[in-house]
Design a protein that fits this description.
Length: 167
């Protein structure tokens, strides 16, 4: 079975590479030093510090494997791929919530701005949403002026694509 592609922007790739390097060069050394100190305390069979350090070491090694796998299967996307006529990976899109009113759609909802990225880079606190999320998948391929319906955990919502821009 082939590895799932990890879709990344140039910034996302740099961040993953930096995180991997930090884990390898800094965190591994810190945990190795904690294990060494815990062993020096003597009997490790009842040493909570030793157990904690070994658990952290296992977590770091697992994280390293995950990051290395993601980087091996990375597919780099250019900012907004090639144009701003349709929403694609890497684009920043402005959406306006459309509320139903008196038989026709009324543009009276809130506006939101999102950058569409791969799931590895998604970070709602930075307005970066995954292409696999309900909103991200609904707006991909849409053009300015189109209205999309999103089925999300909060229910059905409609959004109008107001603007598409490159980063």
């Amino acid at each position: 079975m082939a590895e799932k592609e990890t879709i990344l922007t140039t910034d996302g790739l740099k961040k993953l590479e930096q995180k991997l390097e930090h884990l390898k060069s800094v965190r591994r050394q810190e945990v190795a030093e904690r294990i060494k100190q815990a062993i020096e305390f003597g009997d490790i069979s009842e040493n909570a510090e030793y157990e904690d350090a070994k658990n952290e070491q296992a977590f770091i090694e697992g994280e390293l494997q995950t990051l290395e796998k993601m980087l091996r299967s990375a597919k780099l996307i250019e900012s907004c791929e090639t144009n701003t006529e349709t929403v694609s990976l890497g684009c920043t899109v402005t959406l306006k919530e459309v509320k139903e009113g008196r038989g026709k759609a009324a543009n009276n909802g809130r506006e939101m701005v999102y950058t569409i990225v791969g799931s590895a880079e998604a970070d709602p606190s930075e307005a970066k949403i995954s292409n696999e999320s309900p909103v991200g998948s609904a707006v991909l391929g849409q053009k300015v002026g189109q209205i999309v319906e999103v089925v999300a955990p909060a229910g059905r919502m409609k959004f109008k694509v107001v603007n598409i821009q490159m980063n």
